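Example: Iron complex transport system substrate-binding protein.
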Amino acid sequence: MPNPVRPAVFALAAALVLTGCGAEMPSGQGEESGARAGAGHYPVTIENCGEKKTFDKAPQRVVTNDVGITEIMFALELEDHMAGYVMPEDKGDLTSVPWKDGYQKTKWLSKESINKELVLDARADLVFAGWNYGFNEGDGFTPAELRRVGIGSYLLSESCRNGQGKARGVMAPLDALYTDLRNLGKIFDVEDRAEALVAKFRKQVAEARAKAPKGDDRPRVFLYDDGRDKPLTSGAFAGPHDIITKAGGDHVMKDLKDSWVTVGWETVVDRDPEVIVINDYGDTGAAQKEKFLKSYPPLANVSAIKNDRIVVLDYADLVESPRNPAAISSLAAYLRNVGL
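Written out as structure tokens, the predicted fold is:
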């Protein structure tokens, strides 16, 4: 559980509730506030994970959690609206990405887990995170808890729960990315930037698909995130599904109606992937993951292992992020040249 929050911080949170501070308002309240403020872009109402949220002005002190979420903000050039970001150190090289200037301009608030005290200390008016991307009932850090202390939230669309327990996923992964770009474009009054990015990404994906394997030439592909006893992989609603499919692969776990899920190794063996994509992040690096896959006896006769067809993509390529279209292009090139 987070540490108790100092009384002064709670007083500040109360002040944020009274002034609005750009956080989302209950439906109707933002409209009244916007009407008093006069005509203009605001108030705006968007739908986020099935909930309508109204903003009476653009948030000014956003805290983001994790690399993909943070780079969505950077891609929209919204650094000036951020109080900072929370991210472990295991998310790869951040100095060569297209949005490296965003990392230089924005404060790295913590390399540990995001929590309520941290965002209160940052004087956040909005937290952009997701279920299992920072928000978690077990840790007591949820949109509802933030709302109690006057802080708004925006949920990563890849992480939306679909009403089946805690299963996640309500739309195709790339649609989730485009939805978040457009929603944030409305929230921050940068709709032109959002539409330009969506158009650019759609073009990039279309070009990759035009050259990708098709029909019977599509290789069976498995995404390996981590796990020795049971592998963590992608279902139909996590980023790798669209990345694999639009790159010309046949995603072997496409029937799993969830985002990131655990399966049994017997399922992997039975579906006999011809290519394995490794998610590179964490204390266990890609080289260690590859070594395990190649030495794990139950996988010895799997086509990808027998023929040494293993490709590595970064974590930020595979979770919802503005890197997804480039990852599709990269994987499409590999699948074209893999020589199946």
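The two ends are 50 Å apart (CA to CA).
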